[in-house]
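Task: sequence in, structure out. Protein: DUF59 domain-containing protein.
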Amino acid sequence: MHPSSQDVSPLKKEDLSSNAALSPPFPKLELVNPGPVTFDQIKMALSRVEDPELHVDVMTLELIYRIRIDGDKINVLTTLTTPACPYGPLLIDMMRSSIMQLTTEVKEVKIEVTFEPLWQPSDDLKAMMGLL
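Result:
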């Protein structure tokens, strides 16, 4: 049974790690009703959205917590590297725009921001960014 398209409760860190196949950098994927785009197309669109400060895309940064397709409506639950991220509004607009450009059949893209859990880069991401 699929949750309703209105159910967008924030994910907890244990939700992300409970299923190894869906833990970061792979977001939790929910198909409520098949739509005009696939998860792979959405992930590809989001991988073109680069953080202007870090110069790394939002998929690689593991900022995407959930992607939900409900027919022609797409819901993305995301976080930012920090609640005070100066590029937050720009990143949200870029994510929405990138998904909307996939096809005219996508009628609504909702980008929700949560800080539960706070962004914590994985060890692989830290190594890639030279932080380890």
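Residues 1-23 have pLDDT under 50 and may be disordered.
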